[in-house]
Amino acid sequence: MEEKIKCHLCGGKAKLKQENFELDSGRIVIKDSPYYKCAKCKEEFSTSEQMHELSDLINNKFVFQRPIINAGRSLAITIPADLAQYYNLKKGEKIKIIPEGKKEIRIKL
């Protein structure tokens, strides 16, 4: 990644910076996320490459793999405690399981 690039807004010099990127009112923090800040107009922006890297990080980091287990005569998937707490899930609540295709399922509260 280049240390300095041309600002897309004013043509000034934009310097590479890093800052923590917060999602969901600070409950999710991505440390040292890169962006550029223009010395001339003070515009802060990210390149498409930086946005793709951030998107990949979010999509890969926030994936939970869980084993399919037996629960009596049914199959079951457990939900990690942190995720259950985040969504305020309680035992006995009902969720919707929506088939999205042969290889995808969506869960809706």
Summarize it:
The protein is α+β, with helices and mostly antiparallel strands. Helix content is 18%, strand content 42%.
If you had to describe this structure to a student in words, what would you say it looks like?
By secondary structure, the chain is an alpha+beta fold. It folds into two domains: 4-61, Ubiquitin-like (UB roll); 68-108. The protein is 18% helix and 42% strand. It has two helices and eight strands, in the order E-E-E-E-H-E-E-H-E-E. The model has no long low-confidence stretch (mean pLDDT 92).
Strand content: 35-45%
Gross morphology is: elongated
CATH architecture of the largest domain: Roll
Number of helices: 2
CATH topology of the largest domain: Ubiquitin-like (UB roll)
- Low-pLDDT windows of residues: none
Distance between the termini: 41 Å
Quaternary organisation: single chain
Radius of gyration: 21 Å
Q: What top-tier CATH class of the largest domain fits best?
A: Alpha Beta
Biggest sheet overview: 4 strands, antiparallel
Task: Report the average pLDDT across residues.
Answer: 92
**How does the helix and strand content classify structurally?**
alpha+beta
User: Helicity range of the residues?
Assistant: 10-25%
Number of domains: 2
Question: Strand sequence of the main sheet, in spatial order?
Answer: 1-2-3-4
Please describe the topology of this protein.
Blueprint: E1 4-6, E2 13-23, E3 28-38, E4 44-45, H1 48-61, E5 68-71, E6 74-77, H2 81-86, E7 96-101, E8 104-108
Antiparallel strand pairs: 1-2, 2-3, 3-4, 5-6, 7-8
